[in-house]
Amino acid sequence: MTAAGPSVFLLMVNGQVESAQFPEYDDLYCKYCFVYGQDWAPTAGLEEGISQITSKSQDVRRALVWNFPIDVTFKSTNPYGWPQIVLSVYGPDVFGNDVVRGYGAVHVPFSPGRHKRTIPMFVPESTSKLQKFTSWFMGRRPEYTDPKVVAQGEGREEQPS
Amino acid sequence: MAEVHVIGQIMGATGFSESSLFCKWGVHTGAAWKLLSGVREGQTQVDTPQVGDMAYWSHPIDLHFATKGLQGWPRLHLQVWSQDSFGRCQLAGYGFCHVPSSPGTHQLDCPTWRPLGSWREQLARAFVGGGPQLLHGDAIYSGADRYRLHTAAGGIVRLELGLLLRHFDRYGVEC
């Protein structure tokens, strides 16, 4: 009796970060990266990217469009750790510093075909009023050192947003 | 070899501030793909909407690809230009979308963007026309050097694409 070896499957993700709605902010760019479990590995394509800076259109829609391609193929033996795409959006504040405007994450869809996902974005909040004022003034907002924590469930109780 | 048929139309464009629009389109694929029949790129006619704001082209697309691998799944890239009464052309937006990967008919809305220059160039574009353009078209469908650009949104291009797949199950691909 021979034991069957683990079977490998591939997941190909093709798509784009299409656009965003941020009523209060303008001149934004976004970074995407993938978070996946130990049994997963990217085999082709780019697993991270930085988009262009986009400004709101002058017409009534006030749309922020990136149309930024995502093209990556993963190899795995186990659905546990299914990849999530983590998006971080940055923009300039009133002093011209680049500050984070939102983080969000969503799992790559499980079924083949066309999918559209709208992701709510959140920003970590300072815990004290003094820290809030200092960070506004200095342009150093609370930021995650590694945006990949957004994709994890552990430790979320400690983070107000 | 697995085969893919892409059959559909570039319906038209809406949401652009300029009228009298035309579209230059092309399909980019990876190295494993081969075009068996159809034209890989083209240009639509110039359309000026008489009623409403949507410019209709109804430009047919019929492509037949054969492929040895999934990498480099076809991407349709678009450049929307406007033509004024003097015959000068001005860029209205760049956009791209992946050809769908599941069989059937799909309605696609492709958003577009155009490069913004300095405030001087934006002022000149408003009065005289012209404006910055990309030197190399591959920034439209590739994310590699996008971080250098500063862009603004253009309108939306509407497409209706139908997809037929053949022999994909032989290679263990679920679509």
UniProtKB/TrEMBL annotation, chain A:
It holds the Pfam family B9-C2. Its main location: cytoplasm. PROSITE patterns: C2_B9. GO terms for cellular component: MKS complex. InterPro entries: C2_B9-type_dom (IPR010796). It is found in: Cytoplasm, Cytoskeleton, Cilium basal body. GO terms for biological process: cilium assembly. Keywords: Cell projection, Cilium biogenesis/degradation, Cytoplasm, Cytoskeleton. Part of the tectonic-like complex (also named B9 complex). Belongs to the B9D family. This is B9 domain-containing protein 1. It comes from Neovison vison.
UniProtKB/TrEMBL annotation, chain B:
It comes from the Eukaryota. It is found in: Cytoplasm, Cytoskeleton, Cilium basal body. GO terms for biological process: cilium assembly. Its main location: cytoplasm. InterPro entries: C2_B9-type_dom. Keywords: Cell projection, Cilium biogenesis/degradation, Cytoplasm, Cytoskeleton. The keyword Nucleotide-binding does not apply. GO terms for molecular function: gamma-tubulin binding. PANTHER family: B9 DOMAIN-CONTAINING (PTHR12968), B9 DOMAIN-CONTAINING PROTEIN 2 (PTHR12968:SF2). Component of the tectonic-like complex, a complex localized at the transition zone of primary cilia and acting as a barrier that prevents diffusion of transmembrane proteins between the cilia and plasma membranes. Belongs to the B9D family. This is B9 domain-containing protein 2. It comes from Neovison vison (American mink). The gene is B9D2.
